[in-house]
Structure formats: structure tokens, C-alpha cells
Design a protein that fits this description.
single chain; 489 residues; alpha+beta; FAD/NAD(P)-binding domain; eight-stranded mixed sheet; six-stranded antiparallel sheet; disordered N terminus; binds flavin-adenine dinucleotide
Length: 489
């Protein structure tokens, strides 16, 4: 459901709407409409923004990337989300990135099909390396707070930082902010779930665990609920490159936590989803806290979400330490720099990819990449995963080029989890880290090609773009997969 600019907190209280001045008209003052210093400006240095910037720069564009934090990486770094699923579907620059991760020698080995996690600190340094190598100008500590438009065309962004308020012009802008901030400031239409928005989660690490005893306990507690993955020992690589034992465990804690709620009142409510895995020796990363009914684009709601999930994280650790073998000497080693956001604005593009498209494994002539179709929907009322409720058939769906263009706005493209797909399909495909990474490569390449051809990216020949993406090793549609690839789905 599309929402107007006037907003209310999900908790019911009225909240301040963002200043309408954030969309400015270029003709109003000269200072608001600077000359295009860059070919391409990317807003957001997460796992869609960095490949976008790198792809555009490699294709010859002069590129600037704006990121609000002092490092790049996005959700897989600031929110400690480490699982990059389905290596069989990876292609293009993503394979190059994963080879770099493997060669770096710290943490899991993502190209090993059983071990597709990436250590967040490795992403930080490798994203920085790739951006600098390709000649991207970095503007860290810059929050994008507005857009300057001339008619329907975006001409500049407005940023806030220690250096005050600044504007930067470019020929093409790419919104990779996760929340669709730039598109929103540019007046693009968007959808934001009210009732069924997916949970936000503060992920945290706990160290100094005796894995062998934890593993034994986990195996004995298979009656806890609905296990998607049995507790298992997997080999992980430690900082020195040695293989170590780690644990990967995913289940429901409902029955167990219900017995302990009076002692640990901040334990998360049902459905008590619990997912952990290790990236470092004797340490696990835990994805189990939940914040529902709060709007990630509202700073007051974000504050509530951070506060409540931090309490949950400490309650979970205390529960583990006092009740689960192997955790007696454990300590919390890190919480994410910010809460992880699964879903917020989804910008309405020239086409919006739907669950029906996914269920039909639809092919599109203007396909520029593929998405898998497997629900991963963390709603308050229930958690839908895989081919749940026969809503979808699984497999792949083509991703049309039209999804990258916010409807009615020129000079702007959108990538990442805020891209143009519906709530349910987005959960299990277009928001996933390997997919947003590949989306970035597509958009960056397209932006640079459009600039060379002196045209708006929307008017670029899709056939030429597809040919270029194939040359770069990207699988541009389901048809681009071999029968061997498809068997592995
Ligand atoms: C708890 C949790 C579990 C998940 N599990 C998985 C999983 O198992 N596998 C999987 O593949 N995916 C998973 N996801 C989804 C996935 O991590 C995200 O959807 C994906 O990382 C989104 O990438 P993005 O580049 O679109 O956005 P982000 O990663 O959020 O990056 C956006 C970047 O833009 C910056 N930014 C934002 N606003 C501004 C602004 N106004 N100005 C400047 N910079 C800005 C941010 O700091 C950030 O660096 C999970 C997500 C969560 C929260």
C-alpha cells in the first residue's frame, strides 16, 4: 500500500514528518543546483552500493559514493548479517568478491558450498579496496538528506556531515540506501507495510564458548521445535587460517524460553526464532532478537527498536550462560553497530516484481539478472520460509531492467532491498545479499553505458546492456543458467 509523506508512528503517536524542503527545485537558487561534478553518484555504501559504484567506475564513469558511516558494508557489516546464500547462483563481480574473501584468509570460506558466511571485518576492508582500486571518490560520514530536482529530473543530492550541509551534482544518481532515502527525497512513490512489516533484529556475538559441549546439548534438544537445520559441526577457519570446529544451529526456542520467562523477562516473544553460527573460533553470532510494529524510517521508532533488542540480547546471553552447557565462561563480544533492517520502503519502479511472477518463474525480455524465489518472511504473526504454504514453486524469476527505475523520476535508479518488488517476494529474493550485490553491478554498468551514450539510463538499449553484462560474467536471465545449475536449485 503506497503511503503519503505524512506519517504516523506505528505505535500510534503522531511523529514529525520529514521536512518537505528535502526535495528542492534546482531553479530556486544557484547554490542548490551545482554543476554535475560527477557522472554517477551512489547513495549508500552497502552490499548493493559498493558493487554499483565499482561497476560504474570500471566502465569509465567518474563516480562518487556517499555513506553515512565511517566504513562501507551495509547490513552484512553494521548489522553482522553474515550468510550469503546459494553460491550456485552467484555470478559476475560477486564471484570475484568471494574469491577475494577466500584469498584474504580470515573467517569462513564462502566459495565452499557448505560454508557461505563472510566475516564482516573482511567485507569492510575489501569493499574499501575495491572502491579505491576502481577510482571511486569516497565521501564517508555523509548522510544524504535531500535531493535537488529540475522538473522530474534529479540534479543533485544534499548531504549533512561535520562539514555542514553540501550539495553534489551528477548526471545519474543511484539510490542504494536500503531504505530508499534518496528516491523518497526525490518524490518517488513507495510502499511501506504497516501491519506486516518484517521484524528488525539486533544481531550479536558471544565468545569463549565450549563448542563441543554446546553441540552435544543442541543435538539433545531437537524436540525444541521446528528445526530447519540440525545442529552440526562444521569446519571454520580461524584468523590464522587453521580449520576450527564451529557450530551452526537454527531452531525455535518457544518451549524452552517459555519455561524461563519469569527469570529472564526480556527474552524475545514467540515465535522465538534462534539462528546462530560461528565465524571466529569459540564464538557464535546470534540472530534471535525481534522488534515488530516499528517503522525503520522513523528515528523515534528506531530508538525504541535498538533499546528493546539490546535488552533482549543481554537476556538471551544470560539465559545461555546460566543454562546451556558450553556457555559458562562466555562473554558478549559485540552487538551490531545498528539494528538490522529487513524491510522498509520499497520504491515503485516502472515495473514491480510480484509474488505471482515468482510463482510462475516468469521470464522477461528486459531481464538483467535473476532472483530466486523462496520465502523468508519474518512477520509478527508467523514466519514463512522456503516454499511455505505452497505460495511459491521455488526456482528462479527474471529481474526486469524496468525495476531499477523509480516511476516518474528521471536521472535516478534504485538498487538493493528498497528495490521494486512486492512485500512477499522481496523477503525471499530481491533483498538477499548476493542478489542486491548483483543488482548493483547491473545498475552501475547501465549508468556508465547511458552516460557514454548521452542518454537517460531508462532509454538505454537493454540488448546492449545484456550483452555487456554477459561479457562481465553475469547471468542475465534464467535462460543464462545451464541445466546443471538448475539441477542444483
Ligand atoms: C536480521 C537480518 C537477517 C538477514 N538474513 C539474511 C541472510 O541470511 N541472507 C541474505 O542474503 N540476506 C539476509 N538479510 C538481508 C540483507 O542483509 C539485506 O537485505 C541487504 O544487506 C540489503 O543490502 P542493501 O545494500 O540494499 O542495504 P544496506 O545493506 O542496508 O546498505 C545501505 C547502506 O546505505 C547507507 N545509508 C543508508 N541511508 C543513507 C543515507 N541517507 N545517506 C548515506 N548513507 C546511507 C547505510 O549506512 C548502508 O551502508 C538479512 C537482514 C537482516 C536485517
Amino acid at each position: 500500500m503506497a503511503r503519503s509523506l505524512e506519517r504516523r508512528s506505528f505505535l500510534g503517536a503522531a511523529v514529525a514528518a520529514p521536512m518537505p524542503a528535502q526535495t528542492q527545485n534546482a531553479s530556486s537558487t544557484q547554490a542548490n543546483g551545482p554543476a554535475a561534478k560527477y557522472d554517477v553518484i551512489v547513495c549508500g555504501g552497502g552490499n548493493s552500493g559498493v558493487p554499483t559504484a565499482v561497476a560504474a567506475a570500471r566502465a569509465g564513469a567518474k563516480v562518487a559514493l556517499f555513506e553515512r558511516y565511517g566504513f562501507m558494508g551495509g547490513n552484512p557489516v553494521h548489522a553482522l548479517m553474515t550468510r550469503w546464500p546459494r553460491p550456485a547462483q552467484w555470478s559476475g563481480m560477486l564471484i570475484e568478491f568471494m574469491k577475494r574473501v577466500d584469498a584474504f584468509g580470515v573467517g569462513p570460506i564462502p566459495l565452499n558450498p557448505d560454508d557461505n558466511h563472510v566475516e564482516p571485518e573482511v567485507i569492510k576492508i575489501l569493499f574499501q579496496e575495491m572502491a579505491l582500486e576502481s577510482g571511486v571518490d569516497l565521501y564517508l560520514h555523509h548522510l544524504v538528506v535531500g535531493a535537488v530536482k529540475d522538473g522530474a529530473l534529479v540534479k543533485a543530492i544534499v548531504t549533512e556531515s561535520k562539514s555542514g550541509r553540501r550539495t553534489f551534482g551528477a548526471k545519474v544518481f543511484i539510490d542504494a540506501s536500503g531504505d530508499g532515502d534518496l528516491s523518497y527525497y526525490a518524490g518517488a512513490k513507495y510502499e511501506l507495510e504497516r501491519k506486516n512489516l518484517q521484524a528488525m533484529t539486533l544481531v550479536f556475538r558471544v565468545g569463549y564458548i565450549d563448542f563441543v559441549r554446546f553441540e552435544k546439548w543442541a543435538q539433545q534438544h531437537q524436540d525444541l521445535g521446528n528445526y530447519y537445520k540440525q545442529a552440526q559441526l562444521i569446519n571454520k577457519r580461524d584468523a590464522a587460517g587453521n580449520n576450527r570446529q564451529g557450530v551452526s544451529f537454527m531452531g525455535r526456542m518457544n518451549s524452552l524460553w517459555n519455561q524461563y520467562r519469569s527469570k529472564y523477562p526480556d527474552l524475545p516473544d514467540e515465535p522465538a526464532y534462534f539462528n546462530c553460527h560461528s565465524l571466529r573460533p569459540n564464538e557464535i553470532c546470534i540472530n534471535a532478537t525481534r522488534a515488530y510494529d516499528l517503522d525503520p524510517t522513523n528515528a523515534d521508532d528506531l530508538t525504541k527498536a535498538e533499546v528493546s533488542t539490546r535488552k533482549q540480547a543481554w537476556a538471551i546471553w544470560r539465559f545461555l550462560k546460566e543454562n546451556v552447557p558450553g556457555f559458562e565462561r562466555s562473554v558478549p563480544t559485540e552487538t551490531g553497530a545498528q539494528i538490522g533492517i529487513r524491510e522498509s520502503r520499497r520504491i515503485v519502479g516502472d515495473y514491480m516484481l510480484t509474488l505471482q511472477d515468482g510463482a510462475a518463474n516468469r521470464r522477461f525480455e528486459d531481464s538483467v539478472m535473476t532472483c530466486w524465489v523462496a520465502l523468508d518472511l519474518h512477520e509478527k504473526k508467523e514466519y514463512l520460509v522456503g516454499k511455505a504454504k505452497n505460495l511459491v514453486q521455488g526456482g528462479l524469476v527474471d529481474f526486469p531492467y524496468r525495476c531499477l527505475h523509480p516511476k516518474g523520476v528521471g536521472g535516478l535508479m534504485v538498487v538493493g532491498r528498497c528495490g521494486s518488488s512486492d512485500h512477499v517476494l522481496n523477503s525471499g529474493g530481491p533483498r538477499k545479499m548476493p542478489i542486491v550485490f548483483q543488482m548493483g553491478q547491473v545498475a552501475g554498468t547501465a549508468a556508465a553505458m547511458a552516460i557514454k551514450k548521452k542518454t537517460d539510463p531508462r532509454r538505454l538499449s537493454v540488448k546492449e546492456l545484456q550483452a555487456e553484462l554477459s561479457r562481465q560474467g553475469l547471468k542475465t536471465s534464467q535462460g543464462g543458467f545451464s541445466s546443471e545449475d538448475l539441477k542444483r536449485l
